[in-house]
Design brief:
Layout (H helix, E strand, L loop, with lengths): L20 E3 L4 H10 L5 E5 L5 E6 H8 L4 H6 L1 H4 L6 E2 L3 E3 L4 H10 L5 E6 L2 E7 H91 L12 H36 L1
Parallel strand pairs: 1-2, 5-6
Antiparallel strand pairs: 2-3, 3-4, 6-7
Helix pairs in contact: 6-7
């Protein structure tokens, strides 16, 4: 029989050595003596020759016989005292590698009883009485509460980190919004400057066109105007140029006429 506590999955092992067991070939007096030697026992497993559990002797059944007026008489009867049949009762059996939840469910399935038998590969390992089951259930509740507390702490930390991230993001977005606003102001100012430059270019183009028109009038003469149209300095200059051109033509014609008369006179002589 192992001398170390049986660990229960999902929890720590019970802080006690494994409970004793008794052979199916033992007598009822042997079982009663085991309970008398260990008052803390509430359940003793009964095993066969291969150390496999076949049932259990419960303290409540031992007390029932001992406190019965005929109990001692029955124990003195060799047909009863030499066998465990009088005390043997069924008991739930579960493997040690099962979860604590399965262990508690197996115990709860038995409404009346002192506990259950734990085996390892089908052979006896330990017994868990009601007191042991209460300890395991309490440890399970404590472990669940601790797990929930750790989870709540992690959630709190995650929430704090999320809040910090949101604050940082909001600050960054505020900075970006300020930069966008400043850029919008710069673009608006540039657009205003561009509109002013375009207006200046258009004005200069108009002035250039007017100047070119005036130059054309001076070079080619002023176009005919109606008598009602007022004369301008540029139109008067155009008329003077036309008159000078006409006078030059008349002078040239007069010189040609004089040359022609001279030739005619010479021919007559």
């Amino acid at each position: 029989m192992p001398a170390t506590p049986i660990p229960v999955r999902d929890d720590a092992p019970l802080s006690r050595p494994p409970a004793p067991c008794i052979s199916v070939d033992a007598s009822a007096l042997d079982a009663i003596g085991l309970f008398q030697a260990r008052p803390q026992l509430r359940l003793v497993a009964v095993v066969d020759g291969e150390h496999r559990p076949v049932g259990a002797v419960q303290e409540i059944d031992v007390r029932r016989i001992l406190f019965n007026p005929f109990g001692h008489a029955l124990l003195r009867n060799p047909s009863y005292s030499t066998s465990l049949d009088l005390l043997l009762s069924p008991c739930p059996v579960i493997e040690a590698d099962r979860s604590l939840a399965e262990l508690l469910d197996a115990h709860a399935a038995r409404r009346n009883g002192e506990g259950l038998i734990v085996t390892r590969r089908g052979r006896y390992a330990d017994t868990f009485d009601n007191h042991d089951m209460l300890l395991l259930a309490a440890r399970s509740e404590v472990a669940a509460a601790q797990s929930q507390a750790r989870r709540a702490e992690r959630l709190q930390m995650a929430g704090d980190a999320f809040t910090r991230d949101v604050g940082t993001l909001a600050a960054n977005l505020a900075d970006v919004a300020g930069q966008v606003q400043a850029m919008a102001g710069t673009l608006s100012s540039r657009a205003t400057d561009t509109r002013g430059g375009a207006s200046s270019v258009a004005t200069a183009a108009q002035q250039t066109m007017r100047a070119l028109a005036q130059v054309a009038e001076v070079a080619w003469g002023s176009p005919k105007r109606s008598s009602a149209s007022p004369s301008t300095p540029h139109s008067r200059g155009g008329f003077a140029a036309t008159r000078a051109c006409a006078s030059t033509k008349r002078d040239n014609a007069s010189r040609r006429s004089r040359k022609a008369r001279r030739r005619s006179t010479r021919c007559s002589h």
